[in-house]
Write a structure and sequence with these properties.
alpha+beta
Length: 297
């Protein structure tokens, strides 16, 4: 791990600009930052962070998918759909999608690289979107550069429907609704996303009540945007955090060891033929057991 001290004269400079010389270009610096290889005073950095002077920048050693895939145990792929252009996998809770921060090995992207995923950045080939480590469910992955480009364009145009099942505390104020609240890094806790932020980015989450339970609500949730921790932060913001969420709610509720959040349904057009695809994933066992306890109250 390399450590750099930010000199006072760098105050006000963007982090990616400051590191451009160290990595050979600003683009290379941005790639390493986005990969989670850079931290500021012990907190994962963002490429547009502004320096104050005096901070410590820590840089993790470079890692490639090929190197990491040869060491450690890779997660088993559960393939929900595959054709010559794309793969849809069902990710288990606890599996990290791509190498970042302390998670340099045993990631889903490394297993996918061996299976034929391709396109986009070399350290996370084929990855079009992501899921939090402790969120389970469906993830769409490209198998070529062109497939990746088309899927990313469809995602940006909001032509890919991502639907989640979430169990939240209490009862939302209506049976359906939209949470339209910009999100960004929390002003006080930088590992959290929040509406209380200095750098808000637009975020919209739609929900429909699936079941009203004694103390909780089972929801179908659809993302319009895809901000980090969006569902978890949005429902905490309206006073109904996701059950079992250690960061935004109450850990351990109904015996949960992670948040009750599952990416259950994907709707998209096959990027080359236009064929409509609908892929679904059943609720995993740990969430099913928690749901039965929630029904009892």
């Amino acid at each position: 791990m390399e450590a750099l001290r930010v000199p006072p004269e760098a105050a006000g400079e963007r982090l990616d600009q400051f590191l451009a010389a160290r990595f050979g270009s600003r683009a290379q610096a941005q790639r390493r930052i986005v990969a989670g290889a850079v931290s500021l005073d012990g907190v994962a950095a963002r490429k547009n962070d502004r320096l104050r002077g005096g901070e410590t920048i820590a840089i993790a050693p470079a890692v490639t998918v090929r190197e990491a895939a040869g060491s450690g145990e890779l997660p088993q792929l559960v393939i929900a759909y595959e054709d010559e252009h794309l793969i849809v996998v069902s990710k288990d809770a606890g599996t990290v999608v791509h190498p970042a921060g302390p998670h340099r090995d045993g990631t889903l992207s490394q297993a996918l690289a061996r299976h034929g995923a391709a396109g986009g950045e070399a350290w996370r080939p084929g990855i079009v979107h992501r899921l939090d480590k402790d969120t389970s469910g469906l993830l769409v992955v490209a198998k070529s550069e062109e497939a990746h480009r088309r899927l990313k364009a469809a995602m940006a145009a909001r032509q890919i429907v991502r639907e989640y099942v979430a169990l939240v505390e209490g009862r939302p104020p209506s049976r359906s609704g939209t949470i339209d609240a910009p999100l960004g890094r929390d002003r006080r806790a930088r590992t959290r996303m929040s509406v209380d932020t200095d750098k808000p980015r637009s975020a919209r989450t739609h929900f429909v009540l699936e079941q009203a339970l004694p103390d909780t609500s089972l929801l179908r949730v659809r993302l319009e945007t895809g901000r980090t921790h969006q569902i978890r932060a949005h429902f905490e913001a309206i006073g109904h955090p996701v059950c079992g969420d250690r960061e935004y709610g109450t850990a351990g509720r109904y015996g949960l060891r992670r948040q009750f959040l599952h990416a259950a349904r994907l709707e998209l057009a096959q990027p080359f033929t236009g064929e409509p695809l609908v892929i679904e994933s059943e609720l995993p066992g740990d969430l099913g057991r928690a749901l039965e306890l929630a029904r009892i109250g």
